[in-house]
Amino acid sequence: MDVAARAGVSRTTVSYVLNDRPHQAIPEGTRRRVLDAAAELGYAPSAAARTLATGRSSLVLGVIPDWPVSTNLGEAMRALTRAFATEGLVYLSHTATAAEEDLAPLWGTVSPAATILFDHVPPEQVDRMRAAGIAVVVASWSSEASVPGTMDRWDEEVGRAQAEHLISVGHQRLGYAWSDDERVVGFARPRLAGVRAACAAHGLAPPLVHTVPADAARAGDVVRRWRGEAPPVTAVCAYNDETAHAVLAGLRLLGLAAPADLAVVGVDDNPVSALQDPSLTTVRHDLDALARQVVGLVVGALGEQASPGPSVEDRTPAHLIRRSTT
After folding, report:
1. Which of 116, 136, 150, 319 lies most in the core, judged by the most C-beta atoms within 10 Å?
2. CATH value at residue 211
3. What CA–CA distance (Å, rounded) separates 209 from 97?
4. pTM of the entire structure?
5. pLDDT value at position 63?
6. Which domain holds residue 302?
């Protein structure tokens, strides 16, 4: 028995209700009968049929560069999935294997309504997608110094939050622990910019930047260099929690400790950071707010009204979690 027969209506009416077609005067009682019948029969609408009926796919494709897989990235993808679902859209992510990867086979197969580009993509590829009727939204970070990212503001605020905290507890000479993973340059650059901006706002010297590898002995060498400056660096903003843990390992190897010998602040609030001894002070993104902003950009590109949400100017995108290392 199909949904139409179960609800006692025509198949056209079922199509109007299940595809939520606008401008159709379907009585609420009839709509309810169709929805109840569909639920009782376990009906799941065909994505292809919905696309034909509505003239638009409900799929949003996110093209992600080769970022390191992390707890924070997983949480960000889940936040995007939830936020798109509130708009009746389905989010699908794809990791690009190379910066110049030809995306045509991908979008030609999945036929998305919109594509989010989280990194630089050659303009000719963008033009081809738009020519095919796909809305394209660029939500990128500045992996290339000459191309500012549209989302840089988020990570600038993270770096600013790190520095403002350290300055507020009395530190006047800051260092910055840069990651040795080239894949995260797009995030590291605006974070460092935020630290520099905070130092400048307080009349302090720019942070002394050193790359800190995930190796205790080499991290210890960097700690020696910071402490050997005149005046010495007394606090460090690390690119993320993993880089901060490397700094802490270097301190331990030298018989030193945080925060007495060097205060340290990370980013991401990874679960292990609260369990370390000493526990790591860190900054956490508001990933749900970030997801809402990206969804708003996509919904706007699709020509629909975006759901209300905090703007870049009035939200608090980064939250400091103070623990033992400061």
Report:
1. 116
2. 3.40.50.2300
3. 30
4. 0.79
5. 92
6. 59-149+289-310
